[in-house]
Design a protein that fits this description.
The protein has helices spanning 20-35, 55-67, 77-85, 99-107, 125-134, 154-165, 183-193, 224-228, 231-249, 258-271, 278-283, 408-411, 419-429, 438-457, 473-480; strands at 10-15, 44-49, 87-91, 113-118, 143-146, 173-175, 207-215, 284-290, 292-294, 297-299, 317-323, 333-339, 346-353, 372-378, 382-390, 399-407, 463-466. It has 493 residues and is an alpha/beta fold. The strands form three sheets. It has a nine-stranded mixed beta sheet, sandwiched between helices. α1 (20-35) crosses α2 (55-67) and α1 crosses α13 (419-429). It binds NADPH dihydro-nicotinamide-adenine-dinucleotide phosphate and the ligand O=C1O[C@H](COP(=O)(O)O)[C@@H](O)[C@H](O)[C@H]1O. The ligand O=C1O[C@H](COP(=O)(O)O)[C@@H](O)[C@H](O)[C@H]1O binds at residues 214, 216, 235, 347. Substrate binds at residues 178, 182, 216, 235, 340.
């Protein structure tokens, strides 16, 4: 990645540094980077919120968060102490009492690089940037990191981008999509563009369809308030799933350079056929979880989750059929699916190859599950290719799908970093290849907005599915109409 440089002493200011994202993901990831020797000795983390925490309070809260993080198996007390010493808290009430900006200015060191991470509700991003500018803190070279969702539709996304762009030029804006920091997602590019054998098959001639799935067993947890204004379409499809689709479908970029990669992703988004009119009913399905049992535990339905209204049309599951109208992909459906509180959590991209043009093995031409390449993000990161092989034996010839497995855990002895570790490191070293450019985000909203508008303009509501199930029936009907099935439903015979 051409833009990368060594980490330098940096003041990393995290607005929303006491919130859920910071405690669950950002601070534990920074601890892991520090533990593994990737943070410069002079780097400090300044958490900003309105709640008047002392530095000691923040360090206690962070210590618990680090200890509770699944990737931190053993806490090394000296490393933790060194990391906690980097932390301090400053109270700034964005949009309220302006005195906090002077306190923040006093906490920053003019000799260090500056990164401002906006882990806050997106509607205050503009106020933060104006506050930074007013206090003279958005110095040349300083960078800003924005969390998703970037707006709730194209118009609001443009407004947020304009407000942030008025203070920071595009080169200094890092729009996070944490799926791009996942190891397997980056490996998808390597798989496609560093190996010679796949690319000739990577088109409508040889691929029947693609499935992109990101399902979770968890519900909305403590985020019902946020989720009720979002839903699965804005929370997952507009960003994570469409980014996965872009990396799967894009043309080979001329180099692994940030603009070259982003240019190719943008072309995919611009080639998505709009889903409008009757196609909304045909090509989309949405659901909302009801009560049920997930992994043996009885759980609430969405409407009973605390922090939101007892009646809501918010979708917690979406399935879609997308088409990319270009030479490579014409006629190949891309099925996208995401949902909360289903029976099994899986994030994966499944490439389903076509059958051979002519079979010489009678009776074996439709063996289910054959000819799939699965790029699995989680759990058990890896790449799995299913091929047909002959079952040993002297009797009648029988073919069976057999797996060729590449498990990252078994193959590489090194730990796969958390997505946020990778992305935070990239921000600190000034590499924005794995971040979204403004035009990409806006192209994604341009495709998603009409679908949400169509849902809102009908009197249909999301179909209830029991927690712990495989999602709404509509998702199965959507793919089943063409005689296909979701990957996990294929039972090899
Ligand atoms: N949580 C997650 O898993 C994910 C979150 N995100 C995104 O990250 C962002 C933060 O989410 P999350 O951490 O869940 O939200 P939380 O509500 O848990 O935290 C919000 C943080 O922002 C601070 N804050 C809110 N308003 C102000 C204000 N006016 N001035 C100063 N500080 C303020 C809060 O502190 P206080 O109230 O004490 O001032 C708190 O630290 C959102 O954009 C979300 O969509 C993205 C991906 C995943
Ligand atoms: O951005 C989000 O992602 C998480 C899922 O992330 P994962 O890395 O655990 O797959 C999702 O739970 C959350 O609702 C969404 O905001």
């Amino acid at each position: 990645m051409s833009q990368q440089s060594a980490p330098r002493p940096t003041d990393l200011v995290v607005f929303g540094g006491t919130g859920d994202l910071s405690m669950r993901k950002l601070l534990p990831s920074l601890y892991l980077l520090d533990r593994d020797g990737h943070l410069d000795g002079g780097t400090r983390v300044i958490a900003v919120s309105r709640d008047g925490l002392t530095d000691a309070d923040l360090r206690d809260k962070t210590s618990s968060a680090v200890r509770g993080h699944p990737a931190v198996q053993v806490v090394e007390p000296d490393v933790l102490r060194r990391f906690l010493d980097r932390l301090s808290h400053v109270t700034v009430d964005v949009g309220g009492d302006p005195s906090g900006w002077a306190a923040l200015a006093a906490a920053l060191d003019p000799g260090r690089d500056r990164v401002f991470y906006l882990a806050v509700p997106p509607m205050i991003s503009g106020d933060i940037c104006r506050g930074l500018d007013g206090a003279g803190l958005a110095t040349p070279g300083s960078r800003v990191v924005m969390e998703k969702p970037l707006g709730r539709d194209l118009a609001s996304s443009r407004a947020v981008n304009d407000a942030v762009g008025a203070v920071f030029d595009e080169q200094r804006i890092y729009r996070i999509d944490h799926y791009l920091g996942k190891e397997t997602v980056q490996n998808l590019l390597v798989l496609r563009f560093a190996n010679v054998f796949l690319e000739p098959l990577w088109n409508s001639r040889w691929i029947d369809h693609v499935q992109i799935t990101a399902t979770e067993t968890v519900g909305v947890g403590g985020r019902r308030g946020y989720y009720d204004t979002s839903g699965a379409m804005r929370d997952m499809v507009q960003n994570h799933l469409l980014q996965l689709l872009c990396l799967t479908a894009m043309e080979p970029p001329a180099s692994y350079d940030r603009e070259a990669v982003r240019d190719e992703k943008l072309k995919v988004l611009q080639s998505l056929r709009p889903v409008t009119g009757d196609r909304v009913a045909e090509d989309t399905a949405r659901g909302q979880y009801g009560r049920g049992t997930v992994q043996g535990v009885e759980v609430h339905g969405y409407l009973d989750e605390a922090g939101g209204p007892a009646v809501s049309d918010t979708e917690t599951f979406v399935a879609l059929r997308a088409e990319i109208a270009n030479w490579r992909w014409a006629g190949v459906p891309f099925y996208l699916r995401t949902g909360k509180r289903v029976g099994h959590a899986r994030s994966e991209i499944v490439i389903r190859f076509r059958e051979v043009p002519h079979t010489i093995f009678p009776g074996t031409d439709t063996v289910p599950g054959a000819g799939s390449l699965v790029i699995r993000l989680q759990p058990d990161e890896g790449i799995h290719l299913t091929m047909l092989a002959k079952t040993p034996g002297a009797g009648a010839l029988r073919l069976r799908p057999v797996p060729l497995e590449l498990s990252f855990a078994d193959t590489f002895s090194t730990r796969s970093p958390e997505a946020y570790e990778r992305l935070l490191m990239d921000v600190l070293t000034g590499d924005s290849t794995l971040f979204m450019r403004r035009d990409e985000v806006e192209a994604a909203w341009r495709w998603v907005d009409p679908i949400i508008e169509a849902w809102n303009s009908t009197d249909t509501t999301p179909e209830t599915y029991p927690a712990g199930s495989a999602g709404p029936e509509g998702a199965h009907r959507l793919i089943g109409r063409t005689g296909r099935t979701w990957h996990e439903e294929e039972q090899p015979r």
